[in-house]
C-alpha cells in the first residue's frame, strides 16, 4: 500500500489555518497557496536521489553532491493545481511543468479530462502531481491513469487538504503512488466538498465565485 503522509511542519499548519478562513481574500488565498506549495515541496523533495560530482572551488578540487537524473516535472491538475506551481518553482526553478485539465461534473462528481500537455520525456522524470484538494479522489486517480498511460510511473501526489474517502480511493486505485497532504480532514459532504475543508479551491484561487 502507498504511503500517506500528513506534513506537520508548523509553518504549513499555521498558513493552512489562515487559508481555511472564509474571509480570506483572493489575493491572500493565492499567496498562501503559493507559500504552502513551496513548503510542501521542501518536505516532499527530501528523498530525491543525489549523485557525486567533481568540481573545483577557488581553493581546491572537491567531490560534492547534485541532484541525479533529469529535472523533475511539476504537473498541476487544472485549475486549482496551478496555484501551487510557482511556489514549487521557487525551490526547484529548473523543473519542467506539464498540465492536466480536469473538472468535476457537479451532478456525478466524476472528473472530466479536457487537456493533457506534458514534457515529451515525462516517462523519465520524477513527477510531483499537485492539486490542493483530494476529495472523492476521482480527479487524482484519472490524472495518474493519464500519466501512467504515457509510461510515467515515478509520481508523488501532493495536496493541501485530503478527505479520508479520497485517500482510500487513491490508495486502492494506485497503491504505488505516495500521497502527501498538509491536512487530513473529517469527511465529504453530500455535495462532495471536504468538511471542514476550505471550499472550492479553484473558485477561491481565481475569484470566480
Ligand atoms: C477540484 C479540485 C480537484 C477536484 C477534487 O477541482 O481542484 O481537482 O475538485 O475533487 P475529487 O477528488 O472529488 O475529484 P474542480 O473540479 O472544482 O475544478 P477547478 O479546479 O477547475 O475548479
Ligand atoms: N474540490 C474543491 O475545490 N473543494 C472541495 O472541498 C472538494 C473538491
TrEMBL record:
Residue sites binding 5-phospho-alpha-D-ribose 1-diphosphate per the record: 79, 104, 131-139, 200
EC number: 2.4.2.9
Cofactor: Mg(2+)
Domain of life: Bacteria
Pathway(s) annotated for this protein in UniProt: Pyrimidine metabolism; UMP biosynthesis via salvage pathway; UMP from uracil: step 1/1
Regulation: Allosterically activated by GTP.
Record-given protein name: Uracil phosphoribosyltransferase
Amino acid at each position: 500500500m502507498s504511503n500517506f503522509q500528513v506534513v506537520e511542519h508548523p509553518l504549513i499548519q499555521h498558513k493552512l489555518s489562515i487559508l481555511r478562513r472564509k474571509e480570506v481574500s483572493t489575493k491572500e488565498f493565492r499567496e498562501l497557496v503559493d507559500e504552502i506549495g513551496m513548503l510542501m515541496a521542501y518536505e516532499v523533495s527530501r528523498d530525491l536521489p543525489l549523485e557525486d560530482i567533481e568540481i573545483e572551488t577557488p581553493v581546491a578540487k572537491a567531490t560534492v553532491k547534485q541532484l541525479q537524473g533529469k529535472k523533475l516535472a511539476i504537473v498541476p491538475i487544472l485549475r486549482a493545481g496551478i496555484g501551487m506551481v510557482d511556489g514549487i518553482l521557487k525551490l526547484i526553478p529548473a523543473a519542467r511543468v506539464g498540465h492536466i485539465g480536469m473538472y468535476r461534473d457537479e451532478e456525478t462528481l466524476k472528473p472530466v479530462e479536457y487537456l493533457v500537455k506534458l514534457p515529451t520525456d515525462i516517462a523519465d522524470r520524477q513527477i510531483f502531481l499537485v492539486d490542493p484538494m483530494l476529495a472523492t479522489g476521482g480527479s487524482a486517480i484519472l490524472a495518474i491513469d493519464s500519466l501512467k498511460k504515457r509510461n510515467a510511473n515515478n509520481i508523488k501526489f501532493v495536496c493541501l487538504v485530503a478527505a479520508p474517502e479520497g485517500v482510500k480511493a487513491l490508495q486502492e486505485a494506485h497503491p504505488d503512488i505516495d500521497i502527501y497532504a498538509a491536512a487530513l480532514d473529517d469527511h465529504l459532504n453530500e455535495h462532495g466538498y471536504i468538511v471542514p475543508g476550505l471550499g472550492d479551491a479553484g473558485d477561491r484561487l481565481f475569484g470566480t465565485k
